[in-house]
Design goal:
With 176 residues, the chain is of the alpha/beta class. The protein has a single domain, classed as Alpha/Beta hydrolase fold, catalytic domain (Rossmann fold). Helices cover 37% and strands 16% of the residues. Strand 3 and strand 4 form a beta hairpin. The longest helix has 18 residues.
């Protein structure tokens, strides 16, 4: 929740006037509960979507980073309140975990996948295969020279978010 990738993504979305919710999954930071290998964390995302919907009554653009992207996609794809999906640093494998994304073939929402071209958890070749198998509309942005945390390339990640939101949703930018 407090890493630079999540912070810069929040700033990019907030620049459009979107309400943004950042949260820790169960067992992370000061949150209650224990890590549940992705199962319970999908429920955490659903709870966050429920709160956003009840609080703001607006369509939702889901944005997740790393484990949050992998887990959040499972909750966001089938949720009718979610109108767009941003996956940052989507992992293919990490430590002993292997992530699968077969369900993306049925996810017809606008999606953008933004990763570092040198992401150690999501090699570009693997991401290209996953995105190719996903339903459209979709876009893959590989940030040259960037690794998983976009160190030294956060501006390019933010610009990709901004350009995609502008192209897909054409929002009126908030001033002030």
């Amino acid at each position: 929740m407090h890493n630079k990738v999540v912070y810069h993504a929040m700033k990019a979305l907030h620049a459009f006037g979107f309400p943004v919710l950042r949260f820790n999954f169960r067992g992370a930071g000061l949150s209650e509960g224990e890590h549940d290998q992705g199962r319970g964390e999908v429920e955490d995302v659903r709870s966050a979507l429920d709160w956003l919907s009840s609080e703001y009554h607006l369509p939702i653009v889901f944005c997740g980073f790393s484990f949050g992207a992998a887990t959040g996609l499972h909750a966001a794809c089938p949720d009718d309140r979610v109108v767009g999906i941003i996956a940052l640093g989507m992992p293919v494998s990490s430590e002993s975990r292997v992530y699968t994304y077969n369900f993306l073939g049925d996810c017809g929402k606008p999606k953008i996948f933004i990763s570092g071209a040198r992401d150690q958890y999501g090699p570009a070749a693997n991401l290209k295969q996953i995105v190719a198998a996903a339903a459209g509309p979709k876009q893959l942005v590989l940030v040259d020279g960037a690794e998983h945390f976009f160190q030294g390339h956060l501006h390019e990640m933010q610009a990709a978010i901004h350009n995609w939101v502008q192209a897909v949703f054409n929002p009126v930018r908030q001033v002030g």
